[in-house]
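Field log, afternoon session.

UNIT: design team B
ACTIVITY: writing a sequence onto a fixed backbone
BACKBONE:
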């Protein structure tokens, strides 16, 4: 049996259907565990990178943006670009407004929480399943921040709803993944055109300087 010094995988799973892709990924992981070998695995799929890699290098325009083990990269992205790659697809731009913050002209309801950005402007990154939809700002939990929005589209995803909302007075769209498992009423709770509030916990967000795109300490 051949035992090369280095194996190069150049997006080997990209043309497989979802079920087969998951199966082959599991087999590759088991093969690497039982017969250790050195490999470079190139992919645009963050789930493949997280599950198969022992070290991850996030590339941007030919240079390494961040390198580390999957958990480090997932939990502590060093830049706005890396955060988007590892699944934090929802992006909010904040501007300091006196003692508070605004997003596209709307005051952010910080609910007594401190947004850890020292610059005059910054970026908040979130995952869709980190967002919660409530009817009113008064329903925010103690550790949540919120922005008013309007529901633009709702699609059924099985155990969740994909809800697209547009911030009030803005063109900014945000996508929330709302669980249907915890509440039977979720299926009929949100309808197109309905007013809502997107809520998120301070600890679930990652924060970046707007100008440099680099992470700030939370």
């Amino acid at each position: 049996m051949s035992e090369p010094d280095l194996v190069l995988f150049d997006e080997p799973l990209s043309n497989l259907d979802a079920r087969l892709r998951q199966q082959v990924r599991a087999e590759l992981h088991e093969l690497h565990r039982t017969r250790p070998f050195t490999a470079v695995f190139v992919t645009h799929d963050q789930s493949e990178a997280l599950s198969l890699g022992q070290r991850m290098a996030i590339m941007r325009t030919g240079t390494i943006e961040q390198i580390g083990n999957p958990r480090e990269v997932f939990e502590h992205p060093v830049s706005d670009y890396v955060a988007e790659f590892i699944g934090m697809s929802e992006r909010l731009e904040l501007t300091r407004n006196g003692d508070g913050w605004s997003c596209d002209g709307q005051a952010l309801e910080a609910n007594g929480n401190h947004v850890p950005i020292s610059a005059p402007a910054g970026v908040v990154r979130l995952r869709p399943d980190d967002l919660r939809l409530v009817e009113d700002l008064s329903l925010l939990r103690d550790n949540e921040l919120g922005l008013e929005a309007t529901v633009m589209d709702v699609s059924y995803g099985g155990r969740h709803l994909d809800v697209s909302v547009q911030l009030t007075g803005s063109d900014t769209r945000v996508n929330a993944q709302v669980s249907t498992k915890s509440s039977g009423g979720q299926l009929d709770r949100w309808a197109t055109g309905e007013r809502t509030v997107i809520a998120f916990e301070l600890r679930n967000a990652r924060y970046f300087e707007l100008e440099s795109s680099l992470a700030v300490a939370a």
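LOG NOTE: The helical segments are 18-34, 46-52, 70-75, 80-85, 186-189.
NEXT ACTIVITY: expression trials, pending approval
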